[in-house]
Amino acid sequence: MKSAKSKARLNEMRTPSRSKQNLFQGEKDPVEVYCRLRPMPRDTDIPCIKILSPTTLLLTPPSTAISYRNEGAKTMKYTFKEVFPPDANQQDIFDKVALPLVEGLVKGKNGLLFTYGVTGSGKTFTMTGEPQNCGILPRCLNVLFKTINELQAHKYVFKPDKMNMFDIQNEAEAMLERQQELHKFKSNRKNNSNPNLAMSDTEMNKIDGLNEDNQYAVFVTYIEIYNNSVFDLLDDGPSITKNLQSKVIREDAASNMYVHGVTEVEIKSAEEAFDAFYLGLKRKRMAHTTLNAESSRSHSVFTIRLVQAPVDSMGEAVIQNKEYLSISQLSLVDLAGSERTNRTKNTGQRLREAGNINKSLMTLRSCMEILRENQINGAKNKVPYRDSKITHLFKNYFEGHGHVRMIVCANLRAEDYDETIQVMRFAEMAAEVEVLKPQINNAASTLGLMTGRRKANRLFTTARDNINRPEAKDLEMDLGLVYSLGPDFPSLELNSSQASHIIKELIAHLEMRISRRETLKRSKALKDEKLRSMLLDMEKESMDIKSENVSLRGQLAAAQRRNKALEDRITASENAALSYQRKLSEMSEYSSALKRDLQEKELLLSQNKLDKEKQKKILERKYHHKIAAEHEKAKEINSEKQQLQNEVEEKENRLRIIAQALNGGRSDNITDLRKGTGDMAAQTSVRDFTPGSTPRALPAHLLTPFTTAPQTRESRDTPATSRRGVAIANPRYKRSLSADGKGWVEHAPSKIVPMGTVMKPNIANSKCVNKLTNVKDITSSKKSKYCLVTQDQDTDGELSTTLYKGNIVPTCGGGAQVIFNDVEMLKQFSPTKEPDTSRRTSGTTCARHSGKRRDTGGSPPHTPSNTNAKTQDGGSSQDMRLSSNIPYLYSFA
Ligand SMILES: Nc1ncnc2c1ncn2[C@@H]1O[C@H](COP(=O)(O)OP(=O)(O)OP(=O)(O)O)[C@@H](O)[C@H]1O
C-alpha cells in the first residue's frame, strides 16, 4: 500500500515530458543523454542517488540541502538513455556512447558529444581519461585511424581553405608541400607526445561499412573557451598564457559555424593525433579551486574533421572536384564544471571565471529550453545562441544535422545534491530537444562509377605484379576467352528457294558448335577435376602449413617467454652491475682517499725521520765530545788514583812499622814513626788493635771515614764530647782469647739465600741470631767472637756473602763492644759470564780484609735487616740502617 502511494507520488513529481509521438516525428533525433556516476571519494560519504534501473535514477535530498528546506524530502526520478554505475569502465562508455558517433563520422555524419556536470564529477576523466585508462577522446582517434588506415589520401591532397572548406590538390602539389614540411620539421622538431595517453593497438577494433572507393584525411582543431573568449590550443605561436589573440566565430558559405583562423592540423596516425592533443592539453588553463585540485576552468573543444572524396574509375587518384568532397565532424567537448560560487568561496579572478562558466552553461540551458519550446509548440522564439561562445559554435548541431549526445557526470554524495539536482533538470530538458537526422552526402553515386573499383584495381595490380614475377613463368595460363564455341553464326536469312542449303549450313554449324560444346564440357570437367585436386592439394598443404604454423607459434611463444625471462635476468643483472659499479666507484674513491692519507703520513714520517737523523747526528757529535772529555777526566782520575795508591802504600808501610813497634815494644820505632809520619800517625789509633789478633791491612777508603781527629792515649780515657753516648772499651775487662770458649755470635740476615746459590761459611760453635735484641747474646762469657753476615749483589750482578768478623770486648759500664778486625768475602762467579780476571780464583774467590777499628762514633755498620741494638743498661736504641757495606764497630755500652 505504501509503495503504491510513493510510486504515485514519484510519478507526480517527474518533470513534464513530451509524448513519444512528438519525440520521434519526422527526420529528427532527440539529444541522447547518458549519465555516469563517479565513485564516491570517501567511504564515509553518504549517497543521495540510487540507481533504480539501467536507465533510471532516484535522487533523495539530504536534510542539509537547500531544496530540502524549500520542498522537503521529495525524491526525484530521472530517466536517461543509459545510466553508467560508478564501476562502469571507460571501454563500456566509449562503446555505447562514442563509437556510434565515430561510425557516423566515417559515414559522413556530424556528431557532438559533450560532458556536463558539477566540478569534480568526472567530466575530464570521462572525456580524456587518465594514463593507462584512456577516456573517450583517445579511443575515438584510435578507432578512426584503425578504420581508415590504408584508405588515407597522401598528406596535403586535401587542404583547408581557411573558410571551413577544403581544396583538393593534385599529387605533384601535395608532394611539394610534403617536402617543404619535411624540411621545416627537421629544423624545428618538437616532441609533445605523452606515451601514457597512447593505447595498445589491440584494444580497438575497426569500424565496418566504410566506403572503400573514397580517400580520407583527418584534420583536428583544439580550442578553449575561457572567460567567453576562444583560444587556439594548437597555435604554434606565443604561449597561450601570454598575450594570446582570441579567435572569432564565423559562419561559412554553407551556414556552418567555425572558428576563424584556427589551426587545423592534418593528422596521419593516432600517435600524431595524441601529440596534437597533448600539446593542446599542456596549454589548457588549469586552476585550483577548493573543490577540486585540478579543476579545468574553461570549456575545451576537440574537433575531428574527416574529409573524404571518391577515387577515379581506375581506383587510384582522388577526383579533382570539390563538389564530390564530403566533410563530417565530431566535436568532443569537455565543459567546465558548474559550481555554486558561495560554496567554493572563490574571489577575484576565480570568481570571474566561475561567473563566466555559469553564464555560458546558463545560456546553453536557455537555448535548449527555447529550442524545446519551439519544437513542442511550433513557436519561433529566437534562440540566444550568440549569448555565449559555446552555444554560438554549436548552433549548427542544434539547427543543422547531426547526432548530439551528452554525458551527465554526477557525484553520488549528498553534499553535492543541490548542484546535482540542477544538472539532472538540465539533462532531462536536453533529452527532449530534437536535432535533424544527419544526411549522408554520397556525391560519388551521381558520378555513375562502379562500386568496388578501388578493390578491383588493387586486385588487378596484384595479379599483374604476380604474373611478372619470375616464378610465374612456367605457369599454364589461359588469359584469352576460354569458352568460345566457334565462329559467328552464318547468315540465317531465308530469302530464296535455295534456302535449304542455308539450313544445312546452319545444321552443320550447330552440330559443330554442339560437338565443340561437348569438347569444351569435357575439357571443363577435366579442368574442374584438375582444379579440384589442385584445391585439395592446396587445402592439404594449407592444413599442413596451419598445423606447422600452430607448432611454430607455440615454439615462438616459448622462445618469447624464454626471451622475456632472459631480458628480465639481463635487466636484473644490469641493475646489479650498476649497483656494483656504484659501490666500486665509492670504494675506489675511498681507497684513493686512503692513499692520499697514506702519502701524507709517509711524508710526515720521512720528515720526522730526517729530523731524528739530524738530532741523532747532533747528539752523536755531542756524545763524541763528551766521551773525549770523559777520557780526559779518566786519565786525570787515573793519575790521581795512582798518586793516592802510592800514598796509601806508603801509609801502609808506616802502619806496619807501627804495628811491629807495638808488638815488639820498641818505642823508639814509634817515635821515629811519629816523627816520620806526622799527621798520618795521629789519624791511626793503636789502642784498637787487640793483642793476639792478626793485623791486617785495611784499605784506605775503609779507614778514612772513622779517623776524623788524631787520637792520643789521654784522649782515649776521656771520650770526646762529640762521642759522649758511645761506650768506651775497657781493656782491663777484656777476656783473654785463650780463656774464652771462642764461641761465635753469628749475626745472619733473616732471609738467607738458599745455599745452593750463594756461598755461606760454616762457623763452628756459633749461635746464629737474626736480630741483636738480647744483650746477653754477646755479653755471655761463652761468646767472644762476633760475625756479621751480609749477602748482596754486586754491580756485575754476582751474589756475594760478606762476613765482618770481630772480637767482643766487655766495656767498663758492664756492656760489650765489638771490634771488627776481619772482613771475609765469599763470591761465586758464573762460568757463563765474562770472567773478571782481577777477582777470579778457580771458580771461587775468597777475599779477605782484615783490620782493627776503634769505634769513633761514625755511621753504624750495614746490617741485612733493620737492627735495633739495645744497650745493656737500658740506654737508647740506635737505628742501624746503613747505606754502605763498610764494616763498623758495634758498641753495646
Ligand atoms: N568514474 C570515475 N572513476 C574513478 N575516478 C574518477 C571517476 N570520475 C572522476 N574520477 C576522479 O575524480 C577526480 C575529478 O575528476 P575530473 O577532473 O574528471 O572532474 P571534472 O568534472 O572534470 O572537474 P572540473 O569540472 O573541475 O574540471 C579525478 O581525480 C578523477 O580521477
Tell me the span between the first and last alpha carbons.
149 Å
- Large-scale geometry: elongated
Over all CA atoms, what is the radius of gyration? 70 Å
Question: Could you tell me the strand content as a percent range?
Answer: 15-25%
Which CATH C-level class of the domain at 90-411 is it?
A: Alpha Beta
CATH fold description of the domain at 90-411:
Kinesin
Bound molecules: adenosine-5'-triphosphate
Structural class per helix/strand content?
alpha+beta
Number of strands: 31
Give a topology summary.
Blueprint: H1 2-13, H2 20-23, E1 28-30, E2 32-38, E3 49-53, E4 56-59, H3 66-71, E5 76-79, E6 82-84, H4 90-106, E7 111-117, H5 123-127, E8 129-130, E9 133-134, H6 136-148, E10 158-160, E11 166-168, H7 171-187, E12 214-226, E13 229-232, E14 249-251, E15 257-259, E16 265-267, H8 270-283, E17 286-287, E18 295-296, E19 299-310, E20 326-334, H9 341-344, H10 348-377, H11 389-393, H12 395-399, E21 403-411, H13 417-430, E22 434-436, H14 453-467, H15 499-664, H16 667-677, H17 679-683, H18 700-703, H19 713-717, E23 743-747, E24 766-769, H20 776-779, E25 783-793, E26 799-810, E27 816-828, E28 844-850, E29 868-869, E30 878-879, E31 891-892
Parallel strand pairs: 2-6, 2-21, 7-20, 7-21, 23-24, 23-25
Antiparallel strand pairs: 1-22, 3-4, 4-5, 8-9, 10-11, 12-13, 12-16, 12-19, 14-15, 17-18, 19-20, 25-26, 26-27, 27-28, 27-31, 29-30
The structure holds adenosine-5'-triphosphate.
Binding site for ATP: 117-124
Biased composition (Polar residues): 14-23, 864-882
Subcellular location: Cytoplasm, Cytoskeleton
